[in-house]
Amino acid sequence: MIRLGMRLAVAGGRTAWGLAAVTTAAVAVGTALLLLALSAVPAMQARADRTAWMDSYDWAKEADDSESYTLVDVVEDNYHQADIDVVSMAGVGTDAPVPPGIDSLPREGEVVVSPALAELMMRAPVLGDRYGDVVGEVGDDALAGPDHLLAIRGVSSDEARLFGLPVVEFDHHGEVVQLEGVLRLLIVLGGVALLAPIALFVAMITRLSAASRDRRLAALRLAGATARQVRQLAMVETLIAGAGGLVLGVGLFFTARPLAAHITYDGGRWFPTDLDPSVAGYIIVVVGVPAVTATASQVALARVARSPLMVSRRADRKPVTAYRVIPLAVAVLGLGLLLTTGTAQDIAGSRGEITAAAFLILLLALTLAGPWFTRGVGLLMTRSSKPALLLAGRRLSNDPRAGFRAVGGVILTVLITTMFVATTPAAAASLRDTEVIGQRTGTVHVSLPTSTIAETEVTIDELESVDGVDSPTPVYEALAQTGQDAVKVWIGDCSAVVAAGRLDGVPCDQASVIVADDQRELIDNPDGVVELHSLSPATPVSNTTAPDEDQIETATVRVDDAAIMPSHEGVDMPAVIVTPDALGSVLPQLRPTLLLARYHSVDALEAVRTTVLRRAPDADVSTRETSYEGFSGSVRQLYQTLTIATVAVFLVAGCGLIVAVTIGLLERRRPFALLRAAGTPLPTLRRTLFLEAAAPLTVMSVISALLGIIIGHFIVDAGGNLASLPWGHLLLPVLAGLVFTMTVVGIALPAVNKITAVEQTRFE
């Protein structure tokens, strides 16, 4: 039976070989795409595992003095728009642990850099001595990816004790960053949305040679073959192309993996080896693809098994009914109920699996209802007297399943992309608020958490000599309590602070304490004083030891004659400015932990970073741009993810559309040839083929877009942001789907001339 099935598979000569080749290639594309999709989660886990060593320290741990450990501190530096991870290390003991990627800990003044940072240093000399003398490169097993900018610098153990945390053993297993709210919900639904068109595509390609196979097997059935034998032959014939496509698909996956690794996400590009679907993923593909192809062939063979005359006589299939719409209505109501009975965090978190399953059911229900809508479109078209509309309408009404199958992938894509368009602004609004960053453009904030007074003075002197930098000013930081919240207090020369921070409307000449207008409650108290806490004592204290009880960390200031300044919105802006004389004798017992300065060029800013980080390894140098990038990183990640997912889904839909158009042309080459021989003009046949795709696609795209808007509305509602639906952009997926489909169909139209040649009218 196996040998007979193999012979029948290629019994049609070049046409059969061509169909088998196209089917095999289509299965290969579907397999490769499926493997790439299943590689996403393992790739993120692999990246998390490689960078887990950077988060190994236990904040509550106090290492024993007799134990060997490594003091570690991680800060983020920047060069222009590039983020650089800077890890300061110092070993304590003879067997201090060494992180992956390097053979030994760098000594004080030395630095080991990633290959990407080494390349950047060659192009940017200002980075050359920022971290120390470069003595080597970090291996790939410690990097997020080939673009990871990483510096591991050595510092003295005394210096490291001030800001470093002890590590007895570096972790090798990390946790993938869990996205929150609307973003996480979109990622959950996007994963399902990506797999659904791939599954539809794999099922569709098994129909590529269905017409000729059905005729052959129907003839065998009429000759006496049993239904079981016919099914076995179909199984063998289908699995030949499926198995060949599976093998080629795995090869295509490994070939395309280096290209796919260039897709940036979160930490930049991937290492090609990251894109590995794991053993479970390979099992799913190796078992699932043949299973889908075999199942699709058996479903398509049902007519042959029941009665071969139904195939030989081309009898109509069982008509589709309105009952197909019921599951779609139930799925929409069920998903809507699920999305409106909880927050976005709940829906994507504890109920994430249920949400994903409900969305998958919705996609399946839309696929089930599609032929009914297609049949309705066909019946409307048959009322026309125009030949092309009449022919296309008869085709769609007689075989609505095939009509929908041609555009099903694009329709699912329209639903998915419409949902993305509807929810992206809500996700962005939940993650980004431009008012959060109050730091002014052209200012630099330098945080010096462990620098001594003398070291800070030296840093200020060096900054004053940097060309393009003005007004470097020290600031003593504190907090003041207002009810349950604490507000930021800056202590320093008021005029200098205003100039360096580019603040407006601060009446420095009116009082020694200036309070923001929205914090008047600070001065509305009977005692007339405000208590400041979290002050930094003059001598830095190691974060692994308890502070000295004699060191001052609190103080009070009188606010009887406080002046009022405009509130400066932003988490990095002060609510209170206090002049030094308001603290009196307390100030010499404190140290400044913040430097403010203005810069006038990018080169000046980079010089500031180099000056500061060369002297203070734990310093944080921030600008409005870098702070804003930190707050909007999740938003950029959202847009990148959704863009990649949309392109991938459209790619799958395009492959499915090409296969569907090919199937339609091959299955109807004889009817089209007979119509042409009977006098039907060639342009009419081309318009017929065009309308068969355009008409159901237009109607179904509108339905899919409405479903996408409804789901998007539910998601936005769960996120608590009803006003963010971008109504002006919701038609873009529909228009993109129409243009995309019409382009593919238009490319196929010239083939109508060849498939309607006279020789196609022969009956054998």
Automatic annotation (TrEMBL):
Record bears the keyword Nucleotide-binding: no
Protein name: ABC3 transporter permease C-terminal domain-containing protein
Domain of life of the source: Bacteria
Transmembrane regions: 185-206, 238-259, 279-301, 322-344, 356-381, 402-422, 642-666, 693-715, 727-752
Major site of localization recorded for this protein: membrane
Pfam family, any one: FtsX
The family this protein is said to belong to: Belongs to the ABC-4 integral membrane protein family. LolC/E subfamily.
Keyword set, alphabetical order: Cell membrane, Membrane, Transmembrane, Transmembrane helix
Recorded GO CC terms: plasma membrane protein complex
Ranges for domain ABC3 transporter permease C-terminal: 194-307, 644-755
Subcellular location: Cell membrane
Membrane topology: Multi-pass membrane protein
GO biological process: lipoprotein localization to outer membrane
